[in-house]
Amino acid sequence: MRFSFSYRQSGMLSLAAFVLLAGCSEPFDYDLRGNTGGFNTADAARGATTNRPTPDDRGIISYPRYQVAVAQRGDTVADVATRIGLPAEELARYNGVQVGDAMRKGEILALPRRVSEPSAATGVDIESLAGGAIDASADTTPVQTSSLEPAATPKPAKATGPEPVRHKVVRGETAYTISRLYQVPVKSLGEWNGLDSDFSIREGQYLLIPITVEPVSAAVATNDPGVGSQTPTPPSALTPLPDEKIDPKPVEVPKVSVGEPTQASNTAQMSFPVRGKIIGDYKKGKNEGINISAAPGTKVTAAADGTVAAIINNDENVPILVVRHSDNVMTVYANVEQVQVKKGETVKRGQPLASLRDGDNAYVHFEVRNGFDSVDPMPYLE
Q1: pTM higher than the cut 0.90
Q2: So what CATH class is 277-381?
């Protein structure tokens, strides 16, 4: 399975979906239909997702980093290309289809590049465009006009909320495996991408991963200030608490900041995967781990004892490793090469897993995850 992300430019896109897959202890059933030794898709089926955003008047859904086109009933790939203003062969090649292939209503085609947005529904000021065309006209003959009430212009149909992951299907994947990978119902995956009743997908196809609705906690009934039962008298008002002896010398925890060399500690829960300099701190939602640079070819080692849960390559064919540890903790090692372990292999703390890449890419992106959520790796390393 492949992920397309740039560590430096996009602030370390989250590997949460990949870790979800790696965190499962059961053997992986690629069809997800077996009853013995396979995944149970009940959890994914229970996850509620939002509706896919409404496309604009040409069928385009625009996000900050990409656009997709939604096919209409009876469309071919060529019809969609004509409507959005892209060469049909370019659009077909990018999506692994043929120019004349028939599309299902609601089916998604990923755009190889952004297209112009010439309609009110995509946020362009049509009045300004029309005014510029009139001003540029060579015809100066006076024309009598009458004032009309301005027509109601539809508001731009912009996609709101978080940008969904765009997944490129690789050989051997099914809608069920992708559903389980991202913990979304396969039905929602089909609805978002216009799949048929068999949830058929093809190699090279781009799929939008439905956005999961965050669970809302039940509201707790509260009273206005001063309303309700009386506040009990605190014990300290009746009997003074005994004097508490506090150690005047609090224990200081050493901190490692950006640019400082990593320090190994025998008492830490985990060890640094490489000895080098931290060039990127953990920032929840922006960088889900830390980046540690060292000399090209430096061995990347396991931070703690565990089992190799998964090994995949991103779109640049760069490996990503996940090691599962006790207490539902996992570590992620990305931007590496020359992997020296296999999936399912038991590894020891300090055992080489891979090596750092050459040149400016000689750094490891290291994450610690407690189940689904990323956490700051530093408390584990200090």
Answers
A1: no
A2: mainly beta
